[in-house]
Amino acid sequence: MSKIFGIWNRISDLQADLGGEYNKCRAWKLRGEIPRSYDSRLVQILPSRGFETTWEKLDAWHEAHKRRRKNLREMGRSVEDQDAIPFPELPFTLRCVANDCKLAERASV
Questions:
Q1: Other CB atoms closer than 10 Å to residue 92's CB: what's the count?
Q2: DSSP H or E run through 52
Q3: Three-class secondary structure of residue 88 per DSSP
Q4: Helices 11-18 + 22-31 axis angle, to 10
Q5: Cα(38)–Cα(107) distance, rounded to whole angstroms?
Q6: Model confidence pLDDT, tens digit, residues 8-55
Q7: In this structure, what are the phi and psi dihedrals at residue 5, rounded to the nearest 5 degrees?
Q8: Are residues 68 and 85 in contact, defined by beta-carbon separation less than 8 angstroms?
Q9: Distance CA 50, CA 103 (A)
Q10: Distance between CA 18 and CA 1 in Å, rounded?
Q11: How does DSSP classify residue 8?
Q12: Do 10 and 4 contact (CB within 8 A), yes or no?
């Protein structure tokens, strides 16, 4: 099973980290985007999940979603038929802890 936004195993994990109602978190998963109003919380909690992001990456992610939604509307596509245009690339990157980096370097040689 794939992780939600590449980070969370379950919607309830996303809900525990960001708050909000379960159904709202489920809707975020279906839309492929966490609302901008949660950006500050994302920046705070991502390190505890082993990830990081920047305000610039989050802003670009939201703008890409805005363009995607506009394109879907112009194409006359519904949310259920949204596979016509792929989701924007996630703005989260895996944090590299010093020991993990050394292990990764050794594995790639």
A1: 19
A2: strand 51-52
A3: coil
A4: 110
A5: 36
A6: 999 999 999 999 899 999 999 988 899 999 999 999 999 999 999 999
A7: 55, 25
A8: yes
A9: 16
A10: 21
A11: B
A12: yes
The one-letter amino acid code at 60 reads: A
Token pair 């978190």 in the structure block, residue:
25
Are 18 and 25 a contacting pair, CB within 8 Å? yes
**Cβ neighbours of 65 (radius 10 Å):** 17
pTM of this prediction? 0.78
Q: Biggest alpha carbon distance in the chain?
A: 50
Q: Which helix (H) or strand (E) is 94 found in, with range? A: strand 93-94
Residue whose pair of structure tokens reads 């960001």 in the numeric block: 18
Length of the chain: 109
Two tokens, residue 103:
């292990």
